[in-house]
């Protein structure tokens, strides 16, 4: 069969020749009829770009919209969903049979002589197939549903696949929605507040009547604002820790003056250090503290060397020797002679 097809003209004529051959080989068993599973098994038609789905690419409660061309109008024309989320780990894989069936979604409408369907209106075919692409894989194809506009198909547990036929354009694409549900209805647990369409009915959370009896989840209480941490209080400095700024070097002492010149008075002593500021009083409760940011204490300044002691000052004027008392002017007393 493949040799006959390889000798046919290219383009769509080759695809439509495949259709005629499939009609010729179609049997009541349905193993070789012209449908999406058999076209995939033979490698003649592929899924739409982004239309080969599994548990990773089709998450729960997140519907996906696809536009399906007619199956015989495009070499990429159907969807294939491998429901790997339904595996339990106990299934066995083989070269000829998959452990779980895959779902094939295709758009069919009447196109004589290739698709002599009744009725002629567009419809969506849903098939399941457990075979592989091995030439010796002869598994039956099962037609699950024929959907018309506004109709829906729901696969049983554990597959939970939902297919909804939205609309179509005559001779053009069909718009469908694919969704993976996690139950027959939405309700219980967090399914009414998770932002997902868990039952794939097109209604999310409390827009779904299934959530009417579920109390809305109360908003979590707001945490009070954390109090602002005041800067650390600078340590109170004692007068001994305050150091006077370094004094400028003193002028050299003049040489001692001569005895006739008076000695200049000595320099006045350094003024005492200012007293330390009083400690900060505690603020009343509830009043934010406004303190200056901490600063490191100034480094101690070097102490100036002691001044040399001046030599003893000579007397200003030499002292005169003590005067002897003047001689008495009293006349001597005359003693009478005997």
TrEMBL record:
Residues 211-338 are annotated as: Disordered. It comes from the Eukaryota. Coiled coil: none annotated. Residues 216-237, 246-287, 294-338 have a biased composition (Pro residues). Pfam families: Peptidase_M11. Residues 29-140 form the Peptidase M11 gametolysin domain. This is Peptidase M11 gametolysin domain-containing protein. It comes from Volvox reticuliferus. The lineage of its organism: Eukaryota, Viridiplantae, Chlorophyta, core chlorophytes, Chlorophyceae.
């Amino acid at each position: 069969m493949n040799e006959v097809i390889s000798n046919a003209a290219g383009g769509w004529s080759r695809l439509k020749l495949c259709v005629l051959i499939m009609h010729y080989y179609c049997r009541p068993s349905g193993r070789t009829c012209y449908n999406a599973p058999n076209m995939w098994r033979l490698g003649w038609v592929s899924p739409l770009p982004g239309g080969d789905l599994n548990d990773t690419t089709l998450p729960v409660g997140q519907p996906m919209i696809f536009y399906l061309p007619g199956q015989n109008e495009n070499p990429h024309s159907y969807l294939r969903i491998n429901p790997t989320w339904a595996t339990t780990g106990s299934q066995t894989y083989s070269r000829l049979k998959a452990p779980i069936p895959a779902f094939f979604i295709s758009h069919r409408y009447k196109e004589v002589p290739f698709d002599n369907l009744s009725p002629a209106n567009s419809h969506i075919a849903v098939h399941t197939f457990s075979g592989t692409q091995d030439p010796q894989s002869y598994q039956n194809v099962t037609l699950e549903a024929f959907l018309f506009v506004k109709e829906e198909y729901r696969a049983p547990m554990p597959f939970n696949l939902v297919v909804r036929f939205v609309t179509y354009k005559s001779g053009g694409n069909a718009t469908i929605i694919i969704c993976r549900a996690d139950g027959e209805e939405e309700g219980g647990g967090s399914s009414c507040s998770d932002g997902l369409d868990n039952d794939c009915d097109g209604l999310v959370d409390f827009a779904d009547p299934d959530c009417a009896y579920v109390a809305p989840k109360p908003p979590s209480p707001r945490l009070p604002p954390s109090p602002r941490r005041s800067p650390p209080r600078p340590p109170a400095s004692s007068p001994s820790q305050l150091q006077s700024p370094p004094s400028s070097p003193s002028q050299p002492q003049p040489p001692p003056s001569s005895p006739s010149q008076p000695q200049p008075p000595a320099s006045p002593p350094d003024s005492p250090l200012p007293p330390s500021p009083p400690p900060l009083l505690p603020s009343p409760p509830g009043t934010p503290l406004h303190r200056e940011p901490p600063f490191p204490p100034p480094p101690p300044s070097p102490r100036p060397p002691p001044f040399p002691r001046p030599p003893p000052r000579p007397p200003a004027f030499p002292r005169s020797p003590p005067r002897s008392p003047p001689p008495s002017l009293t006349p001597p007393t005359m003693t009478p002679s005997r």
